[in-house]
Amino acid sequence: METRERIIQAYCNHLREHGKPPETVFVFCKELALSEREFFTEFPSLEAVESAFWEDLVARVVLAVEAGSEWAGFTARQRLLSFLYAFCEESLDSRSLLLLRLSHIGPMEKPAYLKGFERRFKAFAKSILLHGVSLNEVADRGRLSTLYPDALYLHFRSVVDFHLKDDSRGYERTDAFIEKTVAVAFDFVRTQIFDSSLDLVRFLIPAWDCHRE
Amino acid sequence: MNSQNSQDSIESTPVTRIAALAGAGVKVGVNYLKHYGRRAVGASSTDAELQERNASTVYETFSRLKGGPLKLAQMLSIDSNLLPEAYLKQFAKAQYSAPPLSYPLVVRTFRREFGVEPSALFDTFSQTAAHGASIGQVHRASKAGREYAVKVQYPGVADSLRSDIRVLKPIALQLLGLKERDVQEYLKEVETRLLEETDYALELKRSMELSERCKHLTNVRFTEYFPTLSSARILTMAWVEGVTLDKFADSTATQEARDVIGQALWDFYAHQVHVLRLFHADPHPGNFLVKDGQLWVLDFGCAKQLDDHFYQKQFRFLDPHLVEDSARFESALMDLEILLPTDKGPERERIIELCAQSVSLLALPFRNESFDFGDPLFMRAVYEMGEENSRSEATRDLQGRRGSPHSVYVNRAFFGLYSLLTRLRAKVRTGLPEALRAKVT
Fold first, then answer.
1. How far apart are CA B136 and CA A123, in angstroms?
2. Cα separations (Å) of B227 from A30, B132, B206, B276, B302?
3. Contact yes or no for B137/B152 (Cβ under 8 A)
4. Domain boundaries defined on chain A
5. Are residues B169 and B264 in the same domain?
6. Are residues B166 and B253 in the same domain?
7. What is the ipTM of this complex?
8. Full domain range(s) for residue B384
9. B319: buried, middle or exposed (CB in 10 Å: 19+, 13-18, 0-12)?
């Protein structure tokens, strides 16, 4: 196994077993019988390890859905739905980690260890929005459109949050939640309400832009 | 996916559902205001017109909800006696349209139920639903030259049904001007049936059983079911191309063709109720198709089993001599708990009188060898009797608190059957069923 993979896996195991990240790189390397040089060659910090894990999870799901036989013919809305359903399915393997790292924070919070998660999802969101614009499914509204990925990320986080709190059989309520909220989201990007409310938000919170990449 | 309609916007949480329904209440109020306002300025605005407007407001609200509320609308629409005519017309619409489920969710359901995508099981599979079912939707698929209808259930339907009904009950009762005690059995039935209908495995079993046991009936046809392509959430059957029964009834079909279909419908119910004692309890026109002059029966989600004890108690009322023999008639009413030992004096007399009237009327088609449902007087008489009963305080008490809950299913099936036949304007060979004939003579 590659060192990178080994580090990520060991980090996750540590997280699962101890309920918290390793204290220092030194302690972590000792557990793993790894030199600090080897560690720092791969990652700048422990948080970066975790960030990579979450980024990989999103990337895996994106790859899987994009490989689907009907993907090419899907609308933006169908693509987003496919991703969200697939993510919920895939995330069952890492549910204990999600519970540990995401269930105690709100969808608006942006801890450093979720950077990669956010980055990878937004890249995906941009690609489906572009597809949506080309199909006239999503209105291109110039500068305002740049906020769509942020909105979709917030939605994604709330889906994950809902999924983690869902106690229905087979997480059926999450399915319904995804179905209904995506319908609302796509209704928004078609109408003026989205523009007007975001305009208002931007007016009220000038700091909004600072958080964006 | 690009085609959107108002039914697309599904009310999500119980709170927004309540809000939507409360909205309808307000609209109904506004319509009343408009009505009285118009009257005040001297313009004519009839009561019927008002009811019509209210009904469409209520329907618009119901159509934005799916699952429980839609089903409740359907259930209520079957019983002509519960709803004013205007509401009935609007609710009948609810029997067709349901909002679509996204294709990715259909794929997810397939993955869960079968572990593979629809494309792995079928050569073609429509991404959009061919039509809606009350708690799911039907996709058209094909494989090796055969056409299939694949019914896929909405996720979490069973879980949300109970809360739907709880939320809906008081509001619906108020909107429709019904008293809870009049419809209590109904609502209980809706809940039980609905939960049963969410189990497609049970529906598959019943469909196959009932169609096997009815297949000898003339002009009654059943679609083929595919157990290997079905599960608790997905039900696969052969695709049938035909016109729905109400479209057929409203078409320019000849009297002869109408009679054939009406007869098939009558025979189908007679056989189920009197021979099998297990019947299709959902006789709304969307559950039947007409193809090549034959009646095709779809959707056995709602089936009711009658035990022998109840059957005897209920159907002895078909005996034409029973009403004439007051002692036997009274004891039959007591058996069904329509008449209670606590009923005394003139009230008791009135109850017996009313029951005699309704039994004579409802059993009318059984009294002769043939019956012409084309005669609008019959259904109007049934409807007027219901109106009269629901208007008088005395009989309102009667309806709600008495009778066996099993009778609800039987009544629903027969009201449904009678109104379908009336709509068809069919002349049908009726008469008493074989099983009862021997005892009567």
1. 34
2. 57, 21, 12, 23, 19
3. yes
4. 1-43, 47-211
5. no
6. no
7. 0.77
8. 241-441
9. buried
Of B237, B241, B271, B261, the residue nearest B413 (C-alpha): B271
Place of tokens 């029951």: B355
Partners of A169 on chain B (C-beta within 8 Å) are 159
Same domain, B171 and B299: no
Determine contact, residues B231/B151, Cβ cutoff 8 Å. Answer: no
Over its C-alpha atoms, chain A yields an Rg (Å, rounded) of 19
Strands B220-222 and B294-297: parallel
Which residues of chain A make contact with B117, given a CB cutoff of 8 A? 68-70
Which DSSP string do the residues of A53-92 spell out, in sequence order?
HHHHHHHHHHHHHHTSTTGGG--HHHHHHHHHHHHHHHGG
Phi/psi of residue B275, each to 5°? -105, -55
In-domain check, residue B433: yes
Nearest to B105 among A75, A81, A173 (CB): A81
Sign of CA dihedral A56, A59, A63, A65: positive
Q: Are the Cβ atoms of B156 and A82 closer than 8 angstroms? A: no
B258 inside domain: yes
Q: Is B266 a member of any domain?
A: yes
Q: Is B127 left (phi over 0), alpha (psi -120 to 50) or beta?
A: alpha
Measure the CA–CA gap between B155 and A171, rounded to whole angstroms: 9
Contact A176 B107 (CB under 8 A): no
Q: What is the pLDDT along chain B (441 residues), one digit of tens a residue?
A: 333 333 333 333 444 434 444 444 344 434 433 433 343 333 444 555 555 555 555 545 544 444 444 445 544 444 444 444 444 454 444 443 445 788 999 999 999 899 999 999 999 999 888 877 667 888 999 999 999 999 998 777 766 666 666 666 666 566 555 566 656 666 676 667 667 778 899 889 988 988 899 989 999 999 999 999 999 889 999 999 999 888 898 899 899 999 999 999 999 998 998 888 888 877 777 789 999 999 999 877 777 788 888 888 888 888 878 878 888 888 888 887 777 787 777 778 877 887 787 778 778 888 888 899 888 788 777 766 665 655 555 554 544 445 566 666 677 677 778 888 888 999 999 877 666 665 544
CATH code, A47-211: 1.10.357
Contacts of B284 (CB under 8 A, 6+ apart): B74, B77, B78, B92, B95, B416
Across the interface, which of B2, B8, B105 has its CB nearest the CB of A175? Answer: B105
pTM greater than 0.95 (yes/no): no
